[in-house]
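User: Can you write out an input/output pair for a complex, sequences first and structure second?

Assistant: Here is one pair. Inputs:
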Amino acid sequence: MFEHVHYARPPAGRVLDGIDLVIARGAVVALVGRSGAGKSTMLRLINGLLLPDGGTVSVLGRPTTDWDLLQLRRGIGYVLQDVGLFPHLTVEENVAVVPSLLKWDRGRTSARVREMLQLVGLEPNTFGQRHVRQLSGGQRQRVGVARALAADPELLLMDEPFGALDPVTRSELHREFRGIQTRLRKTVVIVTHDMAEAFALADMVGVLSDGCIAAYDSPRALARSTDPRVTPLLAPLVELGAVLPSNHS
Amino acid sequence: MTLTRFLAAHRAELLSLLLQHLRLVGISTVAAIAIGVPAGLLAVRRPRAGAPIVWLANVAQTIPSLAMFGFLLPLPLVGGLGARVAIVVLVLYALLPIVRTTITGMRGIDPVLIEAGTALGMSSRQLLWRVQLPLALPSIVAGIRVAVVIGVGTATIAAAVGAGGLGEYIFRGLSMVDSTMVLAGAVPAAALALVLDGLLLGIERLIVSRRVPGLALVAALAAALTIPLAMTGRAAPRITVGSKNFTEQIILGELLAQAIEHETGYSVGRRLDLGGTFICDTALSSGDIDLYVEYTGTADTAVFKNASETDAARVLERVRRQYADRGITVLPPLGFDNTFAILVRGADARRLGLHTIDDVRQYAPEWRAGFGYEFLQRADGYPGLSRTYGLRFAAPPRAMDLSLIYRALAERQVDLIAGDATNGLIAAYDLSMLQDSRHYFPPYDAVPLARTSVLLRYPAVRAALTSLAGRLTADEMRRMNRAVDEEHQDPAVVARAFLAKLEREPASKE
């Protein structure tokens, strides 16, 4: 999807410097790197929150500069780092945001909202009418995922989706995410600074360093990397004695 | 206590003033929201375009409200007497808090939510209506609260331009030196402010608690605020009488109004207690009022700025001509002249046989005189007086406040003063007015002024006013002023008694 040379340059200076990346349909790709490596910038380039200064970012074969940005964004699920649920809306209303933007009728929307809440493990009758402040961090993140998936997007972007959660909740959500992905088969791009998370979730891992893709490979291949830009990110993994996923698909 | 008795006795009037008050505040608040919120949004989105609006709202807030009424009054469209100009002023005052809190509310929104909305594919308009406005709403409602409280207070001043409301009691009470009446306006106004503030606070809390959709609530609120609009819709009177803001004028206004009601049966509106010559004149020209009583000397010098002239007939003729050019008819004088009065104690006058100012000259060197500040300064005041009559006093005249000057004479602190010819205290203190035999003072004959077009349309009004010609002596006027100022009688009652007396004593045919 990132075709040929792409780079973006917000005011802070050069953030992405010649990125070439093709993301296969149906794949879960994790982008890993230190803070400020440009991971979130890459997500924002995909849904048109940012436009490239040079090169082309293509989604479904079409450059973002040619898309009607509202249509593009409504077709892409987006889960933010800070969740970004609307505090003035109920859980149901939050999940229904994109369907309502797409002007779905009431019946279809409400059926879809219930389906999505069930998918992320929240009982619609219990949680549907709650407000955001009545939810735990893990529940909020589930609602965030439900909201991102509500309009059945081709593509799901997740920016540090589980970053703010405690380790137990996080691994629980990792498990559920894999379950959901097995069923839905979306193309997913996850940004994380945590290599363990990338290994737990992704088919392919891209390592961002100094605005370039330092490595792009399967977790297993990456684990054997000797690239000095990759090994520091692997170190905590080894120390923790994490078990590398042998296979997931 | 007297206040509760007053309020109970004036229930109906109080309610109608309260509704007028609510209407002023309601309409102006809704208008201020309609202007202020978009202005605040603009200021957030395009700071450069928004800055002048915020600046304007800031400046408007610093202008004293009475001054604002003053310079808006003569303007076309927004000006004129009554509710319109009052609403414009109230809107200007309400803008600042609403603009400010809109900006604060919008800037206080977590940027993550803006990003989330954008990333989900909201257009900037959808983002505004679905995310930004609902989230900024509690802050905006807080601003509306401030605006409403300011509005209730400022609306009391609107009575000065005839917009009605509880301020009518305050102004009427102030000019009649009746503190009960002042309180009858001030206490309900304060209570109204507290009630509305509490109500809006409740709404603000409801919105914050998210139990009700905020935007719907605000829409309902705006609708509720305009309800008093419909409730005060009543048939407009055919004729409207105005008056300036002192006792004699209010009595005269009532007198004209009742005479017309009595003679013609027309409904007559009253815009009494307007803030002075300038406002009455503007209101008469614009048709906000149809008639009021003016004094020939005041019209000559203050309205038309003519050179000083002391011949009563000539002054009357001159202002009659000049008013006619403006479509205003000067009706026959009522009969009294509210000129400067040179006063001495009645006992002295009788003992020494004093009738005219000339008679004083021989005693003056042993007397002390007291004058108001203005009379001492003005060329047509003391300097000219002493030249015309050759008066020399024992000491330079004392400058005194006008409200104290009558008492000072009665208590022998001074022996001669310049006062108001029709002041009620002249009789109260047994003072004697000396005739201006050399016609030094310009005449201040009281004459009803009416819009010529109104007199043509309603000839009966002219007949009613003409029937008063020459019937009101200075003594009568003094007595009525005293009845209101000293005995706290209602001006309407005093006027009614006088008209009844006229009925019993038909005018002598000449």
